[in-house]
Amino acid sequence: MTCCAGPIVADCARENISAARYALLDEMKANARTLSDGSVNYSLSVPQIHCGNCITTIERGLGKLPGVKAVRANLSLRRVSVTLESMARSPLMIADGLDDLGYPAQPLSREEADAGDPELKMLIRAMAVAGFAFANVMLLSVSVWNGAENATRDLFHFVSALIAIPAVVYGGLPFFRSALSALKRRRMNMDVPISLGVSLATAMSLYESFQGGRHAYFDAATSLLFFLLIGRTLDHLMRSRARAAADRLARLSAKGGFVVGAAGETSYLPLAALQPGMIIRVAAGERFPVDGTVVEGESDVDRALVTGESDPQHLGRGTGVEAGTLNLTGSIDIRATRAAGDSFLAEVTRMMAAAERGRGTYERLADRMARLYSPVVHILALTSFLGWMIYTGGGWHQSLTVAVAVLIITCPCALGLAVPVAHVVASGRLFAAGILMKDGSALERMATVTDAVFDKTGTLTTGEPRVRHCAIPAGELSGIAKALASRSIHPAARALAAFIAVPAAINLQKLHEVPGHGVEADYNGRTVRLGRISWVQEIAAAGKNDEILSGVAFAVAGGPVYVTTLSEQVRPGARAMVASLEAQGLGLSVLSGDAEAQVASLARSIGIDHYEAGLKPGEKLARLKSMAEDGARALMVGDGLNDAPALAAAHVSMAPASASDIGRTAADFVFTRESLASVSFAHHAALATSRIVKQNFALAIIYNIFAVPLAMAGQLNPLIAAIAMSTSSIIVVGNSLRLYRLEMNETAAEDQASTRGMAPGRAAA
Amino acid sequence: MNNLTILIPVALGLGGLGLGAFLWSLSSGQYDDLDGAAYRILNDDDDNGPAPG
Question: Taking CB atoms and an 8 Å limit, are A77 and B53 in contact across chains?
């Protein structure tokens, strides 16, 4: 961790790879795609891209870096895709390059990065074909309705058949397949009446055309397919692909460890071979392979996985460490206390996997509707057929015509559009507000929450400490402190360096970082220290001062100790969010892995009465489970690695974009803006969407109440069918579009204005 | 009747041309970054379509 002995140190911090950098590197390597010519493609999420200038800046800036073959910035998705010449080039260079340009980046998972979704492409192609057929057949049908007679009418019918039949076969495939597989399992779904309606309508129209009949329903069959495919495509867009945050958690595991033998020699053993009682040496920058107790050495350890706190903790002899936590500064030996299979990390991974499986059981509103709807449709069609058979005394042709008309008119076009269109519009509105939605059903779940649970660090706070009180007198001493603070990558030192306004002293000698303690240097022959209080007190004049326990201390040898206290910065919009959610009748609570005192003061300051502190990941999960057993549906908002199981287990979950990669994967919503107004806005939007969806269902049902009796009475002709179906679909779409007009409340807008650096171009939009 | 034998194939051909053009533009990635495309036209750099991958 020593990089240069010279007095100018500010830039040296870059050489120190922080824990976050390690995580980023790991993630980027895991998600890289190797192309056929040996070059490697990396995708990064860059939320700050917001204008055309950003595209140029990024593409030119990164293009200049050595080894970069191609750069492509995507403004719609806020992503950058970079191709490097070979695996040998460190992808961290891209992230650093983006940082230098002012666009901090986050890794994208492989699933997220893969733009090619074959099923979606297939649906869009089917939709294009159905749309083409629909438009052309409709033109011919309009001519027929306008009075084309005899041979001309027959010609038009045959041309329609020629267009419609291939389109029905191709465009109908997704429905036919799904209907067949449902029937094989002796179940019913919405696709059964759809397939029956479309294929019967086409077959009957073909028969009519050969008979020289007056009515052909080719236009109905193709328009049905077209509308249904629109609904199906939008629905597909809103369905999340299986998320596997548990797998990513498992990737944090070390592959093995160096076991120290009796004579002091080390040998590498794979993870499974590590047994309790073995002494394992873990170098700086590595993750602990198993749980253990430190027997030799001391180091700073990133225990975010356990506590959610970003501050490294200093661990010495006799303290316990958990598998998966990251050893940052010094090499230490641990005695393994548990085998890898029983380690802390393995347990959290198992909990996470169980929570993810549990989530699959939610049945979406549209599916629940379908289960009720399709039997009703079949019964109606069958009743009409039998009724007409009795009425006409065996006139099967007319009876069948009526039955098919019932199937066509009840085809769930408007119903199929009711949910996905509302979800797509809401998702577009949320995206404009900086909230990314992973799954349409998340909106449904969000609309039904009764409780909201928050993590503290990084969620209610920004995770970056801010100087509350700085005791160091201005002038020379401040200059020295700033120089020392600039040397460290510790968040508290960073905050202090940013806080001190005077220029950093440059005449410091032997400046170096002491792992776990702080930074030390010589100033005019006297030692100066900045860091842990007890360590700084060793060189100070005054006796032990036990009153102040936390903060960053600074002293010149023989001089007094100056303690700077820090506090966490509450995210903007926290109070407004609390007020807004409480107004909606939600029960709020804070579940944190941090110490009691900090959690209590923060919870009080933003107005949340209920809080629990010192919780481990498993305990957070247990709290959510017990809430669920009491009938509560909880919204979990969290960011840390330690929140991941709880995010996966909660009824619905949200994470800030600054969250750990695993946290973002586990969450249903990710918000990119700093303000917590995003949380209340997402809840507000979910309620509005649920209202619109219910209206849409009502509209679709009203339409059926008018149209079905007409069809059953045999009064339906292709013209009426076409008008009725299109109108109902258009009304549903129009109603859903109203969601675009949702406003974020005013306090949220103020917060937004005060949040610096977050997509200024979008704030006005 | 005679004019129909010409006009219907012409109408369908034009429609088919549109369909083909749409399917082609879809597969060549022209809908991947709709917002960015609006700005790229103002760039002076040579730009030959979306990067592979």
Answer: no
Q: Give me A463's structure tokens.
A: 């995770």
Q: What is the ipTM of this complex?
A: 0.80
pTM of the shown model:
0.75
| Active site annotation includes A219 | no
Place of tokens 């998340």: A442
Paired sense of beta strands A292-296 and A79-84, if any: unpaired
Neighbours of A640 (CB within 10 A): 30
| Number of Cβ within a 10 Å radius of residue A118 | 7
The residue type at A510: K
Number of domains in chain A: 5
Of A193, A186, A184, A178, the C-alpha closest to A375 is: A193
**Per-residue model confidence (pLDDT) at position A666:** 83
Residues A456 and A468 in one domain: no
Question: Which of B23, B25, B41 should be substituted to probe chain A, the one whose Cβ sees the most A Cβ atoms within 10 Å?
Answer: B23
- Residue A44 to residue A112: CA distance in whole angstroms: 10
Query: What secondary structure letter does DSSP report for A361?
Result: T
Coil, helix or strand at residue A702: helix
Best of B3, B5, B6, B8 to mutate (most A CBs within 10 Å, chain A): B8
From A222, A232, A685, select the one nearest A417 (Cα to Cα). Answer: A232
Nearest beta carbon to residue B23 from set A60, A125, A155: A125
**What's the CATH code of the domain at A37?**
3.30.70.100
What angle do helix axes A191-211 and A150-184 make, rounded to 10 degrees? 150
Q: Measure in Å the smallest separation between the Cα of B7 and chain A Cα atoms.
A: 12
Between chains, do A159 and B8 touch, taking CB under 8 Å as contact? Answer: yes
Residues of chain B found within 8 Å of residue A116, distances taken between Cβ atoms: none
DSSP bridge partners of A281:
A258, A333
First to last CA, chain B: 52
- Do the Cβ atoms of A325 and A473 come closer than 8 Å? no
Residues A722, A163: Cα–Cα separation, whole Å: 18
Tell me the two tokens of residue A307: 């506590």
How far apart are the C-alpha atoms of A19 and A490, rounded to whole Å? Answer: 11
**DSSP string for residues in A121-148:** HHHHHHHHHHHHHHHHHHHHHHHHHTT-
**Average pLDDT of each block of 10 consecutive residues along chain A (765 residues)?**
35 45 71 80 80 83 85 81 82 84 74 64 90 91 84 88 93 91 84 88 90 84 90 81 67 79 80 85 84 86 76 80 83 87 83 74 77 85 91 85 86 83 90 84 90 87 76 79 78 79 77 77 84 78 56 81 80 88 90 82 87 85 87 88 84 85 83 88 93 91 87 84 86 91 61 38 33
Q: Do both A315 and A448 map to the same domain? A: no
Q: Tell me, yes or no, if A136 comes closer than 8 A to chain B by beta carbon.
A: yes
**Domain containing A441 — which CATH number?**
3.40.50.1000
Q: What share of chain A is helix, strand, coil (3-state, %, to 5)?
A: 55, 15, 30
Interior angle at CA A387, CA A383 and CA A389, nearest 5: 120
Pairing mode, if any, of strands A332-336 and A552-556? unpaired
Q: Please state the φ and ψ torsions of residue A560, each to the nearest 5 degrees.
A: -75, 160
- On whether the CB atoms of residues A699 and A414 are closer than 8 A, the answer is yes
Non-local (6+) Cβ contacts of B20 within 8 A are none
Q: Which of A659, A687, A715 is the last residue of a domain?
A: A687
Position A751 in a domain: no
Give me the count of residues in chain B.
53
Comparing CA positions, the residue from A617, A592, A666, A706 lying closest to residue A358 is: A666
Which residues of chain B neighbour A55 with C-beta distances below 8 Å? 36, 39-40, 43
Single-letter amino acid, residue A283: A
Helix (H) or strand (E) holding B14: helix B2-27
Q: Which residue has the tokens 């030119």?
A: A60
* Pair (A35, A165) in one structural domain: no
